[in-house]
């Protein structure tokens, strides 16, 4: 990243009103075309709107993205320094109240410096103790349970009935949550994001459930995620433990849902790719990697905020400006991409797991869950997309890329031909 103190005329965030809405980069049929249009017009960093009238910088270049993710002294996660506070930019129904909160939240995602260094080790410790074989067995069991619910119907929405459910169920069991607790937490989490600013009662209920579970796990001495967090000395109080458990579960659920759903879209809609998999030339892991290269699950990371004025590629990033790293655009930067589609096979140099202090803490576990979810479905059902593959409707989240729905049809069990192996029986190691 080429950054320097301001030394001359440079474009400021408020100098233009011709800003692309960030959600266009995730909801467009061809997301790459939107990023490339921005790159052609603005270079490695472009002005966008997080919501109409809420401006931010979008980092498109690979070098600038890596530099920003690693420079946690210049670009921090704490939204309390946002220079839009007090300007009335967020309406009562805005979905950005949690993202741009004026009062710092006691969460790992918003922590910087010494606080982040204190809160990150408990997360690493809790996730590293998970037995991957057990996580795999849990995933297979829960995937089978979900498929049982719709296989006789001959049709399903693989987002609402599968991809959005598997990760939450798996993480909830790894957290040690009872099914009724897990279901209520999922309902509350969704409602909080939909409610925007009017979510205090829901937030209070969420905190009560999770802090109660932390105390219960400590009393029982469990070795699940909640149990490890409940006794870790790095935390100052149970609120930090509860916020951390909530953040782990929510972040993993959203990311894995998008990874599973996008991989299913790829395999079901791209004949060249699906044929290479069924023919044994590629493994399901290659499909997962292809998604992270071609159309990553988290194309735009949550904002960071500049602590001082600096210039990047002729743009003046002022103190308090929100800056969003576009992982999708960075992965497609012409300086790091080639024209050979096979260059990405076995290549995991993408930025989809982030970089720097806030990088993903459990890429191996995420791959285990996603691989099993995709493989179990495709091995058990002969699934066909119900509709034009080129007209898949993408969700309007500015942060995640996933189909809003994925309707499929398949023969009932009595109509299906005898099953045959779809993937090689020996899986490569998970990285």
From TrEMBL:
Gene3D superfamilies: Cytochrome P450. The keyword Plastid does not apply. It comes from the Bacteria. The keyword Transferase does not apply. Residues 416-431 have a biased composition (Pro residues). Residues 410-431 are annotated as: Disordered. Keywords: Heme, Iron, Metal-binding, Monooxygenase, Oxidoreductase. PANTHER family: CYTOCHROME P450 YJIB-RELATED, P450, PUTATIVE (EUROFUNG)-RELATED. Belongs to the cytochrome P450 family. This is Cytochrome P450. It comes from Promicromonospora kroppenstedtii. The lineage of its organism: Bacteria, Bacillati, Actinomycetota, Actinomycetes, Micrococcales.
């Amino acid at each position: 990243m080429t950054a320097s103190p301001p030394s001359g005329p440079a474009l400021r965030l408020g100098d233009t009103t011709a800003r692309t809405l960030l959600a266009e980069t995730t909801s467009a049929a061809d997301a790459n075309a939107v990023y490339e249009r921005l790159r052609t017009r603005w270079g490695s960093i472009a002005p966008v709107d997080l919501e109409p009238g809420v401006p931010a910088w979008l980092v498109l270049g690979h070098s600038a993205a890596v530099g920003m993710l690693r420079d946690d002294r210049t670009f921090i996660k704490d939204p309390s320094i946002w220079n839009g506070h007090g300007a009335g930019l967020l309406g009562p129904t805005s979905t950005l109240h949690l993202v741009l909160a004026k009062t710092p939240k006691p969460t790992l995602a918003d922590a910087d410096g010494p606080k982040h260094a204190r809160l990150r080790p408990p997360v690493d410790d809790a996730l590293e103790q998970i037995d991957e074989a057990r996580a795999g067995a849990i995933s297979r069991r829960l995937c089978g349970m979900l498929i049982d619910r719709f296989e006789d119907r001959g049709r399903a929405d693989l987002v609402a009935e599968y991809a959005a459910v598997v990760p939450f169920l798996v993480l909830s069991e790894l957290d040690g949550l009872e099914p009724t607790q897990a279901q209520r937490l999922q309902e509350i989490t969704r409602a909080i994001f939909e409610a925007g600013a009017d979510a205090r009662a829901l937030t209070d209920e969420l905190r009560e459930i999770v802090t109660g579970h932390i105390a219960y796990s400590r009393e029982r001495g469990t070795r699940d995620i909640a149990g490890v967090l409940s006794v870790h000395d790095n935390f100052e109080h149970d609120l930090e433990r509860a916020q951390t458990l909530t953040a782990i579960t929510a972040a993993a659920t959203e990311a894995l849902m998008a990874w599973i759903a996008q991989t299913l879209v790829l395999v079901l809609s791209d004949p060249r790719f699906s044929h290479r998999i069924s023919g044994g030339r590629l493994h399901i892991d290659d499909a997962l990697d292809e998604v992270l290269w071609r159309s990553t699950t988290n194309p735009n990371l949550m904002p960071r905020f500049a602590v001082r004025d600096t210039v990047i590629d002729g743009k003046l990033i002022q103190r308090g400006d929100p800056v969003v790293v576009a992982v999708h655009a960075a992965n497609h930067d012409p300086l790091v991409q080639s024209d050979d589609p096979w260059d990405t096979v076995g290549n995991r140099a993408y930025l989809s797991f982030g970089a720097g202090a806030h990088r993903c803490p459990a890429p191996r576990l995420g791959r285990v869950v996603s691989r099993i979810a995709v493989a179990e479905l495709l091995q058990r059902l002969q699934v066909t997309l119900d509709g034009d593959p080129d007209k898949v409707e993408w969700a309007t989240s500015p942060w995640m890329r996933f189909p809003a729905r994925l309707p499929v049809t398949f023969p009932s069990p009595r109509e299906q031909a005898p099953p045959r192996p779809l993937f090689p029986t020996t899986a490569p190691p998970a990285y």
